Amino acid sequence: MSEKAPVRRESTPMPSVPSRFTAAVSLSVRAAPVAFAAHTALTLVTSVTPVVSAWLMKLVVDNIVDRGPRGTLLALVAGLAAAGVGTATLPQLIQYLRGELDRRAGLLTQDRLFTATNRFVGLGRFEDPRFLDRLRLAQPNVGMNPNDVVGGGLNVLRALLTLTGFVGTLFLLGPVMAVLLLLSGVPMLAAEISLSRRRARMIWKVGPVERREFFYVDLLSSVEAAKEIRLFGTGGFLRGRMLAERRTANAAKRAMDRRDVVVQAGLATLTAAVSGAGLVWAVAAAHSGALSSGDVTVFVAAVAAVQGSLSMIAGEIARSHQALELFGHYLVVTTAGPDLPTRAEPCPLPVLSRGITLDDVWFRYAPGHPWVLRGVTLHIPHGGALALVGLNGAGKSTLVKLLCRFYDPTRGTIRWDGVDIREVDAAELRRRIGAVFQDYMHYDMTAAENIALGDLDALDDAPRLRTAALRAGIHDTISGLPHGYATLLSRTFFMTADTPEAPDTAGSPDRGTDGVGTGVSLSGGQQQRLALARAFLRDRCELMILDEPSAGLDAAAEHDLHRSLRRHREGRTSLLISHRLGAIRDADLIVVLSEGKVVERGDHAALLAAEGTYARLFALQAEGYRPHGTDAPLPASTATATTRNH
Ligand SMILES: Nc1ncnc2c1ncn2[C@@H]1O[C@H](COP(=O)(O)OP(=O)(O)OP(=O)(O)O)[C@@H](O)[C@H]1O
Q: In this prediction, does ipTM exceed 0.95?
């Protein structure tokens, strides 16, 4: 069989600029059609008000100089006042509409982004730094908003309309000057576009640096890391690392800003030179009688407006270009193909009746990485309990991840009652599995929610939650919490019902606020029981996987847990991983993995008799329970307790 890359690196190409622009516009329209239409219409109205004002001003000045009819003058002044009110008020309305569009487009973008990431079947994408960089840049709260593209496009359109009006005016008054002014816009545009390209490249380049900086920020502000940081005194070291990343990002941004300053200064000098020349020409023309006083007024306004519009067009094109680059990351993420091959019409997954078979399974996390599983062949019989044993790094958890189809085997197959699990719907496969992972999750949510995340159908089903909690031995603890199952299991958030107006005790030496507003923290073992309850909620699952389910439990709890598990797994297929060999001694089949290979298999008695790895590990553990300095065998009762509880 040919080798398949287990982790498909993201390979979706960046869409072309026109398709990015079309996609951004359609997303903004879909997010808020009314606000979009109103924003567009008002923006276009504001594009003509400066031209109208300038012409009205010319007519007013000419009327005063020529002593025109009083009624006409009043009408012109009224028109000028109306245009002034429009110029003054419309920007506020436009700004509000822009904000609303930003918010709605941001919401839709976020929704689509995380709908897309949830669609990935496996874990590979989340271990691909390039993908993670894109995902960060594509988030509306980090900087990307499709509306920036639309807003930029509209501003360009507005500036173009204003420009057309004033250029027409200038052509009437001084065509040479009009051409000169327009030509001065060409280097401006070229320079701005080149700057925006560089800026977009810089943002992409510093992406990984900023992600690392956020990693250190997260460490320095998380309660989980706070213990070790204080114990080992690593705060200064981590702060140094964080600042080093910030300095690297700052250096890249500074270099960009310096280039910006030089280019903008050059452009401003050019602009000043052109408008100075225009002013000299207009004064000379007025002196010779070629232009009226009103003409000079409108000419000066037109030069300023044309230059303003040109600079706005150049700036907005540059900003839109940059926004389009960021929007491209969003499109790459949301249109990325599946991370693992999926069938358009998946095979139905049969009810497990025979078992799960791994046939010559080889696996490595990436093509350049070492093999983690090397030709594993084993059968987990239906209704049986299979235990996996092995030293750290032997590949046990990896095997579990393949069973859940978080990755596909690089070679070989895994069959569920004869059906290759690559052929079935991964979500359906996972619905049939209950699991507690070695690195189980704890959620900053209520106790009920922490359990219900195992099966959201049970979110409002108190008896089911209670049964699962009872089986995991955590019910009494939860019942004793201030709000029972509704207690927030977190000290880092406020309870939903409470408001952040609770007294701020951060600066107070005595934080004895009786937990005002915040939830409670559970111990590590209690959190592990909660994770077990989450798995037990899936009491109808066909395969139960328990990867080190009792590592954090006290001896009595572990004993109770294994008794409960034995009861629970009757007639159910289960896969158990534990370094505490007493916990798995009564499994139907014990498989010893070493460096990705099955090196021993059999039941407890057979493996002890074989005097191999398992027997050696078991003897080592039992040794720890022998009275000091004796070779005497343990008393029968102690031996039983030892092997069962440790
Ligand atoms: N996501 C990953 N990417 C790359 N390598 C990984 C990844 N996860 C695990 N590995 C590597 O795979 C090997 C097997 O790891 P695995 O977690 O399966 O071992 P294990 O038998 O469960 O060990 P332990 O008893 O310590 O839990 C290790 O060498 C580890 O470095």
A: yes
